[in-house]
Write a structure and sequence with these properties.
PPM-type phosphatase domain-containing protein, 7 helices, 10 strands, Phosphatase 2c, domain 1, PPM-type-like_dom_sf
Length: 274
């Protein structure tokens, strides 16, 4: 299978906290949840370490075993826990976490899993694209945010507001009625959105971290059809480049309020019948 992958940090001076990979019929994007300055985690490891560790172990489990995708994710979370439970406080509410979107060829179907706000987009020939994303985090954020309090990006007020929001989100993370992410609780895998679609008639598969889906779901500058067309014609790297141009046009977030001016962006793109 020929798979196109692009991943790029939002800030060249910082580590990329995304992990994107493909192997033996499995496609995967893990988007580490970046921690604002001042947030304690109880962990000596970085978010990028967590995303890479989880991604590598999850890819191996999904490729090498007959486990379902939720089972594979639960095992991968347990194995990452084992890597650092002796030196880190895994009960700390600020432990590193990540969103997960993955797909795997299973016979004549493609099965998928989405946990938190990364995006899976399936091009279904003449039908509307099937877009799968877990909006529970967004619903919690909408409850916490005051739309009238949106200080410009880069200001001390914005940084303080972001830290406060993340601290409040910890109360809802991996809790019933809140939202679910990959972190230290293997049972979060059972809360992922899952499904399968026939490979016949499937034109393309795109896995996007939320930093790469911004043109459509945050900026509103492209439909999902148009995003898929851009991937088909220009590839993942150009999609990220276009996203960076739009972000640069709104450096203080006045047009598109957001937590980060530029976010880590990752795309895995596959056309099954090419």
């Amino acid at each position: 299978m020929r798979v196109l992958i692009a991943t790029e940090p939002g800030n060249p001076a910082r580590d990329n906290e995304d992990f994107a990979a493909a192997a033996s019929g499995v496609l995967l994007v893990v988007d580490g949840a970046g921690a604002p300055a001042g947030l304690e985690s109880g962990c000596s490891h970085s978010v990028s370490w967590y995303a890479r560790s989880l991604g590598g172990l999850l890819l191996a489990e999904a490729v090498n075993t007959g486990a379902s995708l939720p089972e594979a994710l639960a095992v991968a979370i347990e194995r990452v826990n084992a890597l650092h439970q002796d030196v880190c406080d895994l009960a700390h509410p600020g432990s590193p976490s990540a969103t997960v979107v993955m797909a795997r060829v299973a016979g004549d179907h493609l099965e998928y899993l989405v946990l938190s706000d990364s995006v899976l987009v399936l091009d279904q020939a003449d039908d509307e694209p099937l877009v799968v994303t877990d909006d529970r985090l967004g619903r919690v954020i909408a409850k916490l945010d005051d739309p009238d309090e949106r200080p410009p990006l880069g200001t001390d007020e914005h940084a303080a507001g972001l830290l406060s929001r993340v601290q409040k989100l910890a109360l809802y993370r991996n809790q019933p009625g809140g939202f679910w992410v990959a972190s230290t609780k293997p049972e979060a895998a059972g809360q992922a959105l899952t499904g399968s679609v026939p490979l016949e008639g499937l034109g393309a598969v795109a896995l996007l971290s939320d930093g790469a889906s911004r043109l459509t779901d945050r900026f509103g500058l492209a439909t999902w059809h148009e995003l898929l067309a851009a991937l088909r014609k220009e590839g993942p790297r150009e999609l990220i480049a276009r996203t960076r141009e739009v972000e640069a046009s709104d450096p203080d977030g006045s047009r598109w309020p957001r937590g980060k001016a530029s976010d880590d962006a990752s795309v895995v793109y596959w056309r099954p019948h090419e």
